[in-house]
């Protein structure tokens, strides 16, 4: 059975970007170490500290499906039709995929779903025993509110934004209790992973 993990790099005060979708210095740790780790089918190489690489490589290797919202899809142009990790990307959106994007990337392993519930159901079917990674923000917040998230993984960068796009999106539901975290200290990042208590 797959595991659904809500994940993102975030600031200490819980933002994944500022109001203009800018990430500031939060991703500097992706290029401050000596260990190379590939993303996007090897077309992007990160240079991580040993501690971050040891923590992230097994996590990235287990990701089979990534779920994103339409805003991230539009900002990244669907990452050029290549999943950052794993085999598939599911985009949760009420709008159909852009025709020009489909023409440019006809073989992209991307699926559009009209609801979070449908997207996660399809992702779990595709992922098998692997990880479904839901990128933090509004879509992940909806999944969390629906009780569909098994774990929360935060890569906390030493920055304070004050405002912006929240890790949990617009989630304003009831309290959810998490288990004690696993914590790994990288260079300019702290990796924190919680299981959702059932």
Structure description:
It holds the Pfam family RibD_C. It comes from Luteipulveratus mongoliensis. This is Dihydrofolate reductase. GO terms for molecular function: 5-amino-6-(5-phosphoribosylamino)uracil reductase activity. The protein is α/β, with parallel strands linked by helices. It has a single domain, classed as 3-Layer(aba) Sandwich (Dihydrofolate Reductase, subunit A), CATH 3.40.430.10. It is built from 5 helices and 12 strands. It has helices at residues 50-62, 70-76, 99-104, 116-127, 138-145, and strands at 3-11, 15-17, 35-39, 44-48, 63-69, 88-92, 110-113, 131-135, 151-157, 165-166, 182-185, 190-195. The protein has an 8-stranded mixed β-sheet with strand order 7-6-5-8-1-9-12-11, with helices on both faces. Strands 2-10 form a two-stranded antiparallel sheet. It starts with a strand and ends with a strand.
Helix/strand layout:
Elements: E1 3-11, E2 15-17, E3 35-39, E4 44-48, H1 50-62, E5 63-69, H2 70-76, E6 88-92, H3 99-104, E7 110-113, H4 116-127, E8 131-135, H5 138-145, E9 151-157, E10 165-166, E11 182-185, E12 190-195
Give keywords.
single chain; 198 residues; alpha/beta; Dihydrofolate Reductase, subunit A; eight-stranded mixed beta sheet; two-stranded antiparallel sheet; 5 helices; 23% helix; 31% strand; globular; RibDG_C; Dihydrofolate reductase; 5-amino-6-(5-phosphoribosylamino)uracil reductase activity; DHFR-like_dom_sf
């Amino acid at each position: 059975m797959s595991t659904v993990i809500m994940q993102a790099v975030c600031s200490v005060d819980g933002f994944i970007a500022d109001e203009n979708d800018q990430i500031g210095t939060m991703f500097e740790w992706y290029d401050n170490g000596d260990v190379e780790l590939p993303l996007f089918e090897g077309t992007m190489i990160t240079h991580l500290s040993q501690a971050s690489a040891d923590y992230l490589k097994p996590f990235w290797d287990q990701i089979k499906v990534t779920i994103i919202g339409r805003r991230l899809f539009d900002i990244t142009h669907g990452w050029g039709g290549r999943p950052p990790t794993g085999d598939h990307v599911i985009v949760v959106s009420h709008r159909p995929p852009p025709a020009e994007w489909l023409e440019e990337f006809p073989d992209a392993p991307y699926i559009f779903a009209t609801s979070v519930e449908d997207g996660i159901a399809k992702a779990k079917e595709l992922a098998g025993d692997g990880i479904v990674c839901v990128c933090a923000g509004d879509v992940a917040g909806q999944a969390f509110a629906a009780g569909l998230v098994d774990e929360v993984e935060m890569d906390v960068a030493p920055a304070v934004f004050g405002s912006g796009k929240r890790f949990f999106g617009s989630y304003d539901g009831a309290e959810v209790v998490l288990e004690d975290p696993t914590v790994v200290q990288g260079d300019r990042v702290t990796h924190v992973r919680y299981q959702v208590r059932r």
